[in-house]
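Quick check before the chapter quiz. The format below is the same one you will see on the exam, so make sure you can read both the input and the output lines.
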Amino acid sequence: MQFLVNSNFNFIGNRKKARIFSITLILIGLGSLIIQGGPKLGIDFTGGTSLGLQFEKGVLIGDIRSAIAGLGIGNAEIKNFGNSTDILIRVQEQETSGAGITDAIKAELSKVFPDNPFVERSKDSVGPKIGAELRKATVTSILLALVGMLIYITWRFEFKFAVAAIVALFHDVIITLGVFSILQLEITLPIIAAFLTIVGYSLNDTIVVFDRIRENLKVLRRDSYETIVNTSVNQSLTRTIVTSLTTLIVIVILYFFGGSVIHDFSFALIIGVLIGTYSSIFVASPIVVDWELKNQEKKSRTLGKLGKPIPKKA
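Here is the expected output.
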């Protein structure tokens, strides 16, 4: 389906404005991360206990906190997920007193709310050592994946394309991470999975545009490099928009109807798909253009010093 036939939007010509927009988003996200001392890590990475309960009737978070105040877990995080009947209680590892902490919480709540019974929906416990190992494994996996991508894209295209793609991926993840920081959402293993999905989605979008650029470099030899890249982005626009819209439809449905368990996961994907679509057009391709223009400028200076004629740009 081609609903943007022969489109000629000046994406590359507006790359400076897009760069300012991207830098602004990144700085806002990094500022939030710095102010808050880094991302808010879930118990998967910090260690601790998580208990999800579903009450028969709605209950206030303040009442829950008062009910378990005598257990010595004053810094426990208590929040609703889904609706007012669903409560999630998270206790950091240093505040827990063994596996019995969840039983103690349930016992206290049963006493305080005898007329409002509840059922246990989820329970998870992670030790601090395992949490540290997960953090290390996550960082290592992401770095190895980035190195692999750099090598693959360099082999398939050129080094400048690889650098542009990696910068776009960092752009997408940092902005999504910044949104999570601003909204005080936890980074858990499912969220890491969402980030990796974002990386794959964004990279796929970028590769499609790069492939079109490579084809057009062979066909449109009389045009300037900027024109070729801009034409390639426009030619890929329909595919990019259709893919993004169909993906977003599914993710939005998951966000609203998939339940609280995948709520944050779906939210991360929504942000990631939007930013990934933007970066494949306004981040990756412009970097390739700027890199090539600098190479041409350097080549022209070198030829000028050698007294050789400088090739005219188309």
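If your answer matched, good. Strands lie at 48-55, 77-81, 83-92, 118-126.
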